[in-house]
Amino acid sequence: MRVLVVGAGISGLAAARGLIAAGHEVTVLEQAPGLRLGGGAVTLWCNGTAILDGLGVGLEGEGQRLATLSLRTAGGRRVLEVDLEALAERFGSAARVIPRGSLITLLDGGLPAGTVRFGEQVADLRTDAGGVRVRTRAGREYGGDFLVGADGVHSRVRALLLGGGPAPLTGAATCQGLTPAPFDPGPVTTLMIGRRGDFGFMGAGDGLMQWFFDVPWPPGAPPWGRPLEMLRRRFAGWGPPVGRLLASLEDGDVEVFPHTRHKVPSRWGVGRCALLGDAAHGMPPVTAQGTNQALEDVAALVDRLNTVSDPAAVVGAYSAARRRRAALASAVASHSLAVSGPRTLLQSEHLMRVNGAVPPRLATRGFGRLLHALSGRTPAARG
């Protein structure tokens, strides 16, 4: 089958890898002039790394393998710890943090030369019983038997297929960066939660640290002129290592990303055209579900294209397989933490201290159950 993939981000390149391995002829259309290697690092939970391994993307020695997930109060008091090595043994694959550019390079490196066509922005598409045709803004046309829209939260393919406007803002933003580590975080991903927002950090390999702050950003509010100055004011008084990290940064180190959230549609495409990743279900980055859910989409779509004989029936089967888990992931990402409003009371230092620490065994079991619920690739989900 000839498959057109729109978007050469993580999900688009992963889809191309899976489809080519399954014997399909793939062309990837990317509007940028080259691979987009910027941005921070991504956290891959056990299901995400397992899917990449199945695509032939070896991550051993790349980024930072994670052994522990630690949750603390704003003052630094430990609330719970998840044993990620125990989950790695259980699921057969380890959690890992890897710079986005490194993962993009790995995915692209396994594709045949000429698979990705750069500078090709989709202007229009047509689908009928015989296939799909795409016209780009440069005036070129591409044809195929099936199309995959993997062009992100501002997806042109989604707009053409499903209509509607851009994903709405949620009222929060992430200020993040990937910078030289001012201290060694070890194999631990740490999240500190307070009433004024949250702060997370983890190693990303090669002496780098991925860090982020989630803060309120009401729709319509102007952008911060100096986000680092805002962060230093807002998180003053938090426990270590917040002050040490902020003191190590310069103004240009901070990137600001408003949170958006798509309503997860009941049907992820039309005819012979399917959506995946942020194009289907853009969600806030809280709990690091976006990339992992995109990889779940890739695995499910490749499975359906290989097992459903009629290409026009693939979208229905694929949507049914993915929408419940993706909707759950979106809800978890949108509601698990608060950066403003009454719910922040539950994240106060006093209440979190009163509730006490969760035993590691229970915390690990709970996080493992969450991964099972969100993944079609874990042992329990398959068995």
UniProtKB/TrEMBL annotation:
Keyword tags: FAD, Flavoprotein, Monooxygenase, Oxidoreductase
InterPro entries: FAD-bd, FAD-dep_Monooxygenase_BioMet, FAD/NAD-bd_sf
Domain named FAD-binding: residues: 2-327
This protein's record includes keyword Mitochondrion: no
UniProt entry tagged with the keyword Oxidoreductase: yes
Cofactors, names only: FAD
Molecular function per GO: FAD binding; monooxygenase activity
PANTHER family: GERANYLGERANYL DIPHOSPHATE REDUCTASE (PTHR13789:SF318), MONOOXYGENASE (PTHR13789)
Full protein name: Salicylate hydroxylase
